[in-house]
Amino acid sequence: MDRKIAVVGLGYVGLPVAVSFGMKHEVIGFDINEQRIKELQEGYDRTDEVLDDDLNKSKIEFTSDKNNLSKADFIIVAVPTPINKHKQPDLTPLLKASETVGTVLSEGTIVVYESTVYPGATEDDCLPVLEKYSELKAGKDFFVGYSPERINPGDREHTFETITKVVSGQTPEVLDIVANVYSTVIKAGVHKSANIKVAEAAKVIENTQRDVNIALMNELALIFNKVGIDTKDVLETAGTKWNFLKFSPGLVGGHCIGVDPYYLTHKAQELGHHPEVILAGRRINDGMSKHIASEIIKQMLQKNIPVVGTTINLLGLTFKENTSDLRNTKVFEIINELQEFGLKVVVNDAVADSAEALKYYNITLTDKSALQPTNVIIFTVPHNEYILDKKYYLDLVQEEGIIFDIKGIIKEEDLKAHQSIWRL
Length: 424
Fold this sequence. Notes:
By secondary structure, the chain is α/β, with parallel strands linked by helices. It is built from 15 helices and 13 strands. The protein has helices at about 15-20, 35-40, 50-55, 90-105, 120-135, 170-185, 195-225, 230-240, 260-270, 275-285, 290-300, 330-340, 355-360, 385-390, 390-395; strands at about 5-10, 25-30, 60-65, 75, 110-115, 145, 165-170, 190, 310-315, 345-350, 375-380, 395-405, 420-424. The relative contact order is 0.08.
């Protein structure tokens, strides 16, 4: 392979991609965030998605100067694809990245998008921007491909190199080149998609499928709560059947599962189809924060614990366990709801960045050692720290206090006499 690789966007997805390629090839790593570039040049990754040793060993030229991209002829775009306040796709980062790449695009270059999009976005939305700013013709002077990211933040087992890589290209020849480039670093192998739209659709339904299944578990949790039985007990019992799908209820936030389905539903509605099942799942999952907050208030009142002015401890602010990623965390909605009832919520997170929590949510994180005993503690995110040292945190709960365990990490035998537990 004699392609010169560049990666545009060095976040939770782009950096692991750049580092993996950088272990075997010389890579240009580009990001518009100059502070991020400075940190990476100094060997520091605030996302903690790559090991310091790997970051330092990789051959990456970190830069915020777009002109350096002109040296590459295989450019991977890995920028966020969020939704706006109306829960519609926001392609702004993707289109801005395409504009940047377009201004430095040279003939023969292949641009591969990894960002999650709806079917058609690469060719219908991004390609015209590349053409406009490069004044080159796609399919003749340059080419595009799509290879959806499958990185799972905080997961050291399923990494960029160990997950089968879906690849697609504008032509059969481009597809072969894209497959060959990724094959130099992907140990799990590549899967050649029929075309770009198929690859885009495959990515967006991966997380949509998980979203719908979790929504079912959340709805079951709502039902079983009214019945008066433990959802965890029910799922463990049902799970003894060999083909029972082992999903569990919980908060669905982050930049993937809680976002990607809206890309698919947007495209469906654009084509005149109303996606009932997908949107129903989204409504259920988006409503879980409010349900959990209401249950916390209800349980407190039932145990004669005052609400207004009472201080409670909440453990975990990130969108999922063992990652510092705070984007689209549903825990923030729980905190807001509880504060509206008059509770004082003390928030601790074992892995989140304090500066980011303050910047994005105006939440001041409290150190573990500064947590004080309270009548209520809420385990919202099952970071390893909370599982391994759960006795420390449970000892902060006063006699006859309540433990709210959102993800089922506390067992009955962990409780002291007179303490009670509520699980989702």
